[in-house]
Amino acid sequence: MTEAARPASPPRGLFISFEGTEGCGKTTQMRLLVDGLRRCGFAVTSNQEPGATSIGRQIRRLLLDPAHQEMSAMTELLLMFASRAQAASEIILPALARGDVVVSDRFTDSTLAYQGAGRGLGFDTVLKAHRIAVGSLYPHLTLCIAVDVETGLNRAHHRNQTTHLPVTETRLDQQSLEFHLRVSAGYQKIAQLEPSRFRMVNGEGDIVSVGERVWAEVNPLLCKTYDTQNTNR
Fold it and tell me: Is the pTM of this model over 0.85?
């Protein structure tokens, strides 16, 4: 993106989410996109699912603490949407009303993949919970960073071994390979069902190369939403 690119007064905000299996690099790519957008003058609001709000952070500790292996699939589902409902009310909807670009590290597509496909609850159950929790709120664009599942898990395990946080967030990382393969298949299913919104982005290669692929997906929607000229990074 160039420093000369500046957004006009937007008619509405833009909601972009990042998805992917464990260790895919989505959080790194999200941060790169957020930084680039801000350098270009866009007002950007970041969100993390679960965990962006005070309530969400407490829910995140419950969900991801490896001490809670007994947690049922339905409990997991409802806690995810409890955090999401709070984030929608407190962060996402106000930011979109201001005309911000909202960039979220996961949203309901994660729940479709992890609880719907991975836990076997099914897409219909997840979508019913979505309607109750956040109504018709969906990202305008979702970018799923795709890497080999085993490669991503190895990255995630290495990250967990080197973290110095007092409470690790490894409960989902510790699930079986079969679980993570079902999650990956869930993402593939979403991509087939919603190709105009949900885009698979090749996550192989260096960070810069993946970032260029991300930008190639985001830039056209930015131009359309904010009436800017085509921008380059």
Answer: yes
